[in-house]
Write a structure and sequence with these properties.
two-stranded antiparallel sheet, 2 domains, 3% strand, 2 strands, single chain, 12 helices
Amino acid sequence: MLEGLIGGLFNGISIGAVLLIVALGLAIVFGLMGVINLAHGELMMFGAYTTFVVQNVAKEMGGIAPELYIFAALPLAFLVAALLGLLLERSVIRYLYGRPLETLLATWGVSLILRQFIRSINWPMFIALVIFGLLFFVGRWVLTRYTDWERISQWANPTFLALSSAIALLVGFIVQSSGSNQFVRPWFGAQNVDVTPPSWLRGGLSLGNTLQFPYARLFIIALTILCVAAIYWFLNGTAWGLRIRSVTQNRGMSACLGIPTERVDALTFALGSGLAGIAGFAVTLLGSVGP
């Protein structure tokens, strides 16, 4: 009876530790920008799928890589989710500050897009996205550098967007039509995927005859404590942390004192998104994950 109660409490704490990391990212973003990001769970999903991809690469490499892949998966999960969050902030959310209803609807729509993206992504879609990014962003950078961008931006932005989208869609369709079944099939699909912990995270710490604390759940709890401590240090012991706290307390005065509030917003959103990626990494150690 007592062993079952302690085991259930421990399992609840380990799951709560994952939710704490997720909530920490949400709290940072909401505290600074007042944005409720309904795509936060999908950023967590990208962290989980990044871990799955790193695991598969480690298995292909063989040797000691399958035992150490989590030390590569953890920072990569943070980085992928942070970059995706930065892209979301720069492309959507920065235009909706102070409009909470529109932000809720926009991030909800983004969450549906990201979920379907994971279900559908394959090589033709990936190639089309790379071509779109090169055409649109590189072309836009060239124009902003060598032309009077402020004067032509009203017609240049939609023109570049339309042309880049049309070319990318055409190339993607051609590749999709000419590729083999193996080449065009989805990378992940709608089914759940499993991440196998390294051997040193399997099993558990035994106390008595029936009570066991799994090493994977102990690792998650330790990771959560480390994340909370790192965020506390970042916000209270670094210059950018001071800027974030300053903008949170008084955005107008911070801007008057020369603090780049737009950069602070972008950094904060990337940080909160990266924490969601870490939570996605952690949840793969608890069971299978899916879109």
